[in-house]
């Protein structure tokens, strides 16, 4: 006889109805707790999903904005380099003096 069959036989053979009623009440209480916990987890998952979708929209919009800003800055710096190059060709002495008076900043790279 397998274990489930043995447990079932003992339950059927049990003559104490009070024990059976207490077991049934315990099972119903466990089921109620499980259903309550399940409902709470479902509500939390729905809330988390909504918050994630909201935050994800903001993240994507900020990513697009940062890419546009980078493109704009690249364009500005390209134009500045062109202007600087033209000024160096047209006014080499003045540009040399300006470089000596205001040297380019040294940027240290982070490791």
From TrEMBL:
Stretches with biased composition (Basic and acidic residues): 88-103
Domain (KxDL): residue spans on this chain: 11-94
Cellular-component GO terms for this entry: BORC complex
Domain of life: Eukaryota
Example GO biological process: lysosome localization
InterPro entries attached to this UniProt entry: KXD1-like (IPR039843), KxDL_dom (IPR019371)
Disordered as annotated region, ranges: 88-111
Pfam families: KxDL (PF10241)
Family: Belongs to the KXD1 family.
The name this protein goes by in its record: KxDL domain-containing protein
UniProt source species: Phascolomyces articulosus
